[in-house]
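Same chain as my last thread, 389 residues:
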Amino acid sequence: MNCHERTATALNLGVPDRVPIFSCTEEQNQIYEILGNKDGALPLSMIREGVTGALFKLAAPLINRVGWMTSETEKFMGKKLEADIALGYDCSWLMYSSIFNLRGNRQSTDIWGKLYDLVADPDGNVDTPMYREGLLTTPELWESWHHPDPDKFYKTIYRVFADLQKRYGDKIYLMGSLFSGLWESASQSMGLANFAVTLRRNPDFVRKMVKYYETIYLATINATADAGMPAFIYSDDMGHKSGPQMPPRVLDEFFGPSLRRLCEEAHKRGIKIIVHSCGNVNLLLEMFAGWGFDGVHSLEPTAGIDIEDVKKRLGKSMCIFGNMDISHVLSEGTREEVKEAVKVQLKAAAMDGGYIMAMTNSHNAVKVGNTRWMIEDTHRYGVYPLNLA
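reply #2:
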């Protein structure tokens, strides 16, 4: 089987020739190391310090208008795929994240109305912006915000995804995605406390918000399908380390109808749709399946997720992704620890197919060497029929 056949078989809950391996890596320090170009990353000091930092601070409005950050982010998406292919992944999460605008040289905003701090990875390079707070703290502020037009957003996503599919789609199974799902966009743009109050006092407004974000996601799913990509990842962190961020009943009441429509649209367009959610989502797993998702990713072991339990509960309805620990095994684990972790994952979730090997998240502490070991060991021990003795 090639990477497309292997991934498609697993997503259909079948048994491929070997367990496929999925990349969610988005970190500059790792991607440029894989490509042999450690100097290719953008240092945060260039934006925040010295003469260039002062220029960025003064010129931020102009930089936003000309789309410099958007252009650089879109170029980086290609570098990410080149690194994934070089490392030997079968499938890749391709998140469209060109949604930020500079606010001076220390912060940025996104198109949803959230404020972020610009932060550095361990090498001093620009990392994913760190969410600070929501700017749209009242319904009136949300109404006055310049929200992206779904039709224009479709055209942007389609342009980028069609180009990447044309250049890399024959080498790796691509899964389109969009930064910030319905839950994150609604709750974080207001701030969780303000959102909770609004949910209680003005539930119709919350439904209006969610419906708008639904139109953006429907446009993105259709752009993904029209670009020729075979799958879409719906990324929306709904869990804390201790459990769901909101009661499951509330999530289902206010977000469930839209999420069902997203899944229905993806299936109507002939593509698979996978939900990514960090944190302890044990109470949400059957809900994910009920909403119509084909697979589930992250499944953080450090948030109390037992992949063997997940496989027993969902193995006949959803493809299982992830659960490879990034807090120790892939960041500081030994060669032997990585091998044993891979074998544990395979034994717990892959024996009868329907499983895709993956680390739980992208994180700058993950070592490229440990990632290579994970891939090598999956190639060695993940061949069907599995023999893990």
